[in-house]
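2.7 Reproducibility. Because tokenized structures are sensitive to small changes in the input, we list the exact sequence used for Abi-like protein, including any N-terminal residues retained from the expression construct. No trimming or masking was applied before prediction.
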Amino acid sequence: MSFELPEWFCRMFSSPRFVPYRNAVDGDDKRAWDLYRWNIEVSEAFYCPLHCLEVSLRNAQHIELSARFGRVDWWVAAPLRKHELAKIAQAERSLRDKGAGLPSADDVIAELSFGFWVSLLSRSYDRYLWVPVLHRAFPHYSGRREGLRDNLQAMVLLRNRVMHHEPIHHRRLEADHVKIYRLLGYLEPAVAVWLRDFDRVPEVLKRRPEGRGR
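Resulting structure tokens (single pass, no recycling of outputs):
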């Protein structure tokens, strides 16, 4: 029996956005339909481990930076570049626009993006932040800063695709999942143990539709 995409699907979910799924399964609409649905499921499943990684990273770095500079609004004293200072100013404006009044340091910390925290591990901060303070945020890591930063940046890209409803089915998702746990282990192994109790990614990965590369 031939399969025809429902009219409402083409209207509500956009035919052009369906093209990457068709391309992944040689133009077979039924398999593309199954892949689209699975992409939503696996994106939802990845939300939990990505949430744990992002929140753990920002709080671990915030704790160390606050201790180093002796204030919870450490960005006032830290040697940040214009780009990062602009991100903080943008976060403060956004909070004020939401009616937060004078944002607290905690408000600002929560408003800053995953990418902001990873940017503090870039080469330009090697001498000023990584060596004197930020390496302490990763007590179970003994490698080079560059490798850590690159792995975290890969997770920022995955997070952005998930949150912007983009395809992630073409990624090596098993490897992404392992990487999240490894990064959590560098920060605090107990978080990784806790996460495994409700992490649905392994179960959803087992139900990956056939007919595509891994």
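The CA atoms of residues 96 and 102 lie 7 Å apart.
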